[in-house]
Amino acid sequence: MVLGITLAILMDLSETIEKALYPIIITTQTIPITALAPVFILWFGYSIWSKVIVSVLITFFPVSITIYNSFKKIPKDQVNFLKSLEASNLDIFLKLKIPASSFSFFSALKMSVPLTLIGASIGEWLGATSGLGYFSKRMMSQLDGAGVFAPIVIISSLAILLVQIISLIEYKTLHWRNK
């Protein structure tokens, strides 16, 4: 999340940074993660870092693009109005862009949480000695159908629970939206 938000802010601040980063962000999504995961395992071994990188690559895209697009959707009239009141760029960011993008932030969070779980499972499936992905791979080699589906049910249940928690936080945080 932090990487995605940071990239969105940087691209919003500078058109040069946007032109440099946007194609790279899009390119990261054209390469299948299952193709990159073995490379990360070669580079980082079977440590947690290979799984973290897989999860980050899957997660940061929806966050950065969703939040960046929400910044760009803010009407120029509103930005110009705040500038006419001599608001600084920081004021515009804090008082206009953050509130205006808060809905998109929660949407991106809801998208990225399940993707993070999937990324971690892919990382475990391709190279780990424990975890739900490893368990699923082991059960598959034993032709145990129930053992293969059990991690899927656990991951799906966890994703649903986390998205519901995020929805509750969104409801409590953006209570003014519901009025």
CA-CA gap between termini: 28 Å
Write down how many β-strands occur, each being a DSSP E stretch of 2 or more residues. Answer: 0
Q: What profile does the largest beta sheet have?
A: none
List low-confidence stretches. none
The class by helix and strand makeup works out as: mainly alpha
Percent helix among the residues? over 70%
Strand portion:
under 5%
Query: In oligomeric terms, what are we looking at?
Result: single chain
Mean pLDDT: 84
Query: What coarse outline follows from CA principal-axis ratios?
Result: elongated
Q: What's the gyration radius in Å?
A: 20 Å
Enumerate how many helices there are, as a single number.
Answer: 8
- What order do the helices and strands follow? HHHHHHHH
Explained architecture:
The protein is mainly α and 179 residues long. The chain has 8 helices and no strands. It has helices spanning 2-13, 15-28, 33-44, 48-72, 76-84, 89-126, 132-141, 145-173. The protein is elongated. The two termini are 28 Å apart. The mean pLDDT is 84.
Quick summary:
Helices cover 83% and strands 0% of the residues.
List the helices and strands and how they pair.
Layout: H1 2-13, H2 15-28, H3 33-44, H4 48-72, H5 76-84, H6 89-126, H7 132-141, H8 145-173
